[in-house]
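Title: Comparing notes on inverse folding

I've been comparing how different people in this forum approach sequence design from structure. To keep things fair, I'm posting one structure and asking everyone to reply with a full sequence. Here's the target:
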């Protein structure tokens, strides 16, 4: 029988193998499945028992049907569809030899296996179990993404498909208009084996081609068709830095089991000894954890003198975290972060963190109660800071419970809390308290939202070595100390809704009265309430100090308003407020906080948003007397995800002459921008600049404009490829992490497991 080869299928195969270019006329055949044709003939047949040990039913439909009774050959033509269990075949013509059980399909053949993978070819041989044989000019579209095209191939009885002179890519073959596009990368190979049982594709003689250029061999390449990970080598990373010179990292990924894996990395440098690292991840029945480690041997910088050590030391970093949920209520989580020295992470560009915290937390949570047994330890990464002054905490016990039945119509929450904080060379503090909080909310007949709050708490403290704390107001009195706390508050909001400029507006005046008798604040240490500053976020808080160690006393009234306007696409929201104390502030509210006098500074926040294109946020604090800006913080984003500009600015002008811990003046500018062009290309840049000068902070040597870090780069990103080159300059030397330039080349081949 003679067959006319379809230009549609042949064109697709040619496009897949010879550079992925094709006319627009047959671009959509791979991406979309044609609807089933109308059936004009239908038959149900069962193959002869002698042709197979396990007969199976095969349904087929076609426009025309013929039967050769002498040779027992059924021939179907015209939009033929065969179905057997989860498999199907579509073709222009199908002949079925009932004696031998052989099925031959020809003309625009599409075979779908039980896993949903689609095979396109011109001629396909199957037996009555739907097991295929030899094929030519074929294209295999994997269900999980990716396509394999080959000059020839065969399918064994176990379903294994072997392809010769094949090409693979996970890129989309169509653009948004339905026309074919040339994928940015593909893998060519002499031989490809597809194992449907293990859902794995193995390549022999494979090469990676990027934008049509053959780049590098990929020996031993294998990938999974179910989006799962497969063991193998990963694409190297390249970087050039000031501290280490040229850096090349090679990785091997080991898929140990479906629930655990290991990634091993070896890195060589031209200006430093080599380094090894690895990450182990494990998913268990009750939770998951991962462990990452780095190890090398090199000279390092002394934490205190800043000079290089004379001999090489073992240097490294350990990071681990995990969480285990034993039942719906009980869980355990924790993390470990440790470094051998303070400059290792910055030297090898792993992290810029100035402290590393290790934690442990046992929790029980149900609808009415919360229990936590926690602890943490911190390792400082700051040069010159005494590690002995850095606190460790174990344990912190916190228990809270809501009462089921209301008390006087309000909700009651009980709390028990204790803390043990100790330092190697500093003050030690132990604390315990018990508290009860009652809260009642309601709406008046005029629409006011009224909240009544009452808090009672009793504290017990013990501290020693108090003189080792530099700031006197943080020390407290040594030995055992106790105090009682009582706070009452009334909070009233009155939302007023109306029309405005074609939209809606909500104007909400608010007033709050808080009263508390004198509290023995300075008698107890201050460990967790040091960073106090009046902001819009804590203006109406019951206690404007963070933590538990400091509580505002006296009587104060806070007043302000919220105003929100919404129009189609637009949203404007602003908040402004101030507080007044009936007595002079206590010693715990020092100058520079905005709360030290009877009348506080003004604080506010304004947000403007236009769809997802413009986002503006301004936070500020105004001096109550001169209206001078004491805090000026501005964040703006204009643009889309592809093209945008971001600007952030912060200035703290506290107007104090003396040095107070946690109240230094600062001025900083942050900026970033990205511009997309030519569909997939973009250029980007960012920078952080210190604008603080000596008049704002005498400890700074800056002249008022000092770059901290800048970055420039160019990137390419489409549906299956990320490629970029970045240049970064660090302007601050920290130990052996030298200031200078860093260049990095990276790329990520999606759906191939390279990242």
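Reply #1:
Here's my take.
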């Amino acid at each position: 029988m003679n067959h006319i080869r379809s230009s549609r299928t042949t064109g697709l195969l040619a496009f897949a193998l010879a550079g992925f270019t094709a006319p627009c006329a047959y671009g959509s055949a791979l991406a979309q499945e044609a609807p089933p044709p109308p059936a004009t003939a239908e038959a149900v047949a069962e193959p002869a028992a002698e042709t197979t040990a396990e007969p199976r039913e095969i349904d087929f439909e076609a426009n025309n049907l013929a039967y050769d009774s002498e040779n027992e050959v059924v021939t179907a033509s015209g939009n033929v569809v065969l179905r057997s269990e989860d498999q199907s075949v579509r073709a222009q013509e199908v002949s079925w030899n009932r004696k031998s059980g052989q099925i031959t399909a020809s003309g625009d053949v599409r075979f779908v296996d039980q896993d949903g993978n689609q095979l396109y070819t011109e001629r396909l041989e199957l037996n009555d179990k739907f097991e295929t044989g030899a094929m030519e000019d074929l294209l295999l579209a994997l269900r999980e993404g990716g396509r394999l095209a080959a000059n020839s191939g065969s399918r064994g009885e176990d379903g294994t498909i072997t392809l010769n002179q094949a090409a693979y890519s996970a890129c989309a073959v169509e653009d948004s208009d339905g026309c074919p596009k040339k994928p940015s990368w593909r893998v060519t190979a002499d031989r490809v084996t597809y194992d449907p049982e293990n859902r794995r594709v193995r390549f022999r003689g494979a090469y990676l081609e990027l934008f049509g250029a053959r780049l590098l061999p990929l020996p031993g390449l294998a990938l999974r068709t179910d989006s799962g990970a497969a063991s193998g080598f990963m694409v190297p990373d390249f970087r050039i830095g000031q501290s280490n010179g040229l850096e090349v990292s090679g990785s091997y990924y080991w898929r140990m089991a479906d629930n655990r894996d290991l990634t091993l990395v070896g890195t060589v440098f031209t200006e430093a000894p080599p380094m090894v690292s690895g990450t182990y991840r494990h998913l268990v029945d009750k939770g998951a954890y991962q462990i990452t480690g780095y190890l090398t041997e090199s000279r390092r910088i002394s934490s205190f003198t800043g000079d290089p050590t004379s001999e090489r030391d073992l240097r490294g970093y350990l990071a681990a975290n995990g969480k285990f949920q034993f039942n719906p209520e009980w869980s355990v989580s924790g993390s470990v972060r440790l470094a051998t020295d303070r400059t290792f992470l910055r030297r090898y560009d792993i992290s810029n963190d100035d402290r590393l915290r290790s934690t442990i937390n046992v929790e029980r949570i149900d609808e009415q109660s919360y229990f936590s047994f926690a602890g943490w330890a911190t390792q400082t990464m700051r040069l010159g800071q005494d590690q002995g002054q850095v606190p460790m905490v174990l344990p912190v016990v916190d228990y809270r419970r809501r009462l089921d039945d209301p008390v006087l119509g309000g909700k009651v929450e009980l709390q028990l809390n204790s803390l043990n904080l100790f330092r190697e060379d500093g003050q030690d503090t132990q604390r315990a308290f018990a508290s009860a909080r009652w809260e009642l909310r309601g709406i008046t007949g005029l629409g006011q939202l009224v909240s009544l709050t009452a808090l009672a708490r009793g504290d017990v403290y013990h501290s020693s070595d108090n003189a080792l704390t530099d700031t006197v107001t943080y020390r407290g009195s040594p030995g055992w100390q106790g105090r009682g706390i009582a706070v009452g508050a009334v909070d009233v909001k009155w939302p007023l809704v109306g029309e405005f400029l074609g939209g809606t507006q909500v104007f909400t005046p608010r007033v709050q009265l808080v009263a508390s008798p004198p509290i023995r604040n300075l008698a107890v240490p201050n460990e967790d309430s040091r960073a106090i500053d009046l902001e819009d976020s804590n203006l109406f808080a019951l206690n404007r100090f963070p933590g538990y160690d400091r509580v505002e006393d006296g009587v104060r009234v806070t007043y302000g308003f919220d105003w929100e306007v919404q129009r189609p696409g637009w949203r404007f929201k602003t908040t402004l407020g101030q507080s007044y104390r009936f007595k002079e502030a206590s010693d715990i509210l020092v100058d520079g906080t905005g709360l030290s006098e009877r009348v506080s500074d003004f604080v506010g926040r304004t947000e403007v948003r236009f769809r997802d294109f413009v986002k503006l946020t301004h936070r500020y604090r105004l001096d109550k007397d001169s209206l001078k800006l004491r805090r000026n913080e501005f964040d703006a984003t204009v643009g889309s995800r592809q093209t945008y500009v971001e600007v952030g600015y912060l200035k703290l002008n506290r107007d104090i002459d003396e040095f107070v811990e946690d109240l230094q003046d600062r001025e900083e500018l942050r900026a970033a921008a990205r511009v997309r062009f030519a569909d997939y290309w973009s250029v980007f840049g960012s920078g952080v600049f210190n604008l603080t000068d000596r008049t704002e902070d005498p400890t700074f040597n800056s002249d008022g404009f000092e770059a901290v870090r800048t970055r420039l780069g160019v990137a390419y990103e489409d549906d299956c490829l990320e490629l970029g080159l970045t240049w970064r300059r660090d302007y601050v030397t920290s130990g052996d992490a030298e200031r200078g330039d860093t260049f990095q080349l990276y790329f990520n081949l999606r759906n191939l497991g390279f990242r």
